[in-house]
Amino acid sequence: MSTFSDTLSRAVTTAKGASGSGRPARRKLLLHAVLVVCAIGMALPFAWMLFSSFKPLSEIFVQPPKLLPQDWTEQGYRTALGGADFVRGFWNSTYIALTVTAVSLLTSAMAAYAFSRIDFWGRRPLFIVFLATMMVPGQLTIIPLYIIMGWLGWVDTHAAIIVPPALFNAFGVFLLRQYIKGIPVELEEAAQIDGAGRVRRFVTIILPLLRTPLTALGIFTFLGQWNNFFFPLIFLNSSEKFTLPLLVNQFKGQYVSDWPALMAATTLLAAPMLIVFAFAQRQIVEGIALSGSKS
């Protein structure tokens, strides 16, 4: 009797274990199904933009809508790349984004080091005020900023859209400060005993350890400047100084828009961002995780 009871007990335990192990598998399958649906929903607009760039204008608003074009044509890309303005705008966007990114990484790292390592009067209140600027929309500061740029003679120059974001990046300072506070102070103290000054400790110890957050911040900054539309729209007047988002906007007319050319130009505008994201997904995720860490 006891043997039968033991066998029955083991059978019930095995059944419960099999049932319990099946639940995580079903949950994982359901989660993957939801993620696939979400991924398709997010990829569909990009696919529509890409295929519409190869459509003639007559097929853009055909009913019922069709994803793939019936008559493939590259006329949209010919129109978008036909003038020198688009190539010049591509160069303008590239060098502005790279310049802002490089300078912003340096200034943000120095400011973050000061807020985390240098004990000066009013450090914490100043950092709180510094972070509070992240809650102020750029549209509220555009008028005083425009007045300042006018005083400096920087209106209709690239300096107006390079200098402010390059020298003042509250998010970058916050992100790097979070990481620096996690670096042991003993590393700097050991270097200080060996005679290393503040600048040398920053360059030889702190900066090499900031490679991960600097990479993430560089990606965020580059993508933000590459997509920047509002500030170039306000400060730039000459077409030869326009960035790519401003030139893409010119394909939209008041009554008639060249939709294939607009889709082609938008595809070319989005291509660098997609390439950066494809090769830097890990750094982007790490940067988001770092921004949420405790100070």
Notes on the protein architecture:
The protein is an all-alpha fold. It is 74% helix and 0% strand.
Descriptive tags:
single chain; 295 residues; mainly alpha; globular
Architecture blueprint of SSEs:
Blueprint: H1 2-52, H2 75-82, H3 84-117, H4 123-132, H5 138-152, H6 159-167, H7 170-180, H8 185-193, H9 198-209, H10 211-226, H11 230-235, H12 244-249, H13 259-279, H14 281-291
Helix pairs in contact: 1-13, 2-13, 3-6, 3-7, 3-10, 10-14
Q: What characteristic shape results from the CA principal axes? A: globular
**What are the segments in which pLDDT stays under 50 over at least 5 consecutive residues?**
none
Sequence of secondary-structure elements? HHHHHHHHHHHHHH
Number of E-type strands:
0
Question: DSSP helix count?
Answer: 14
End-to-end Cα distance: 64 Å
Q: What's the helical proportion of residues? A: over 70%
| Mean of all residue-level pLDDT scores | 82
The amount of beta strand, in percent, is: under 5%
SS-based class: mainly alpha
Largest sheet report: none
Report the radius of gyration as a whole number of Å: 27 Å
Summarize the structure.
With 295 residues, the chain is an all-alpha fold. The chain contains 14 helices and no strands.
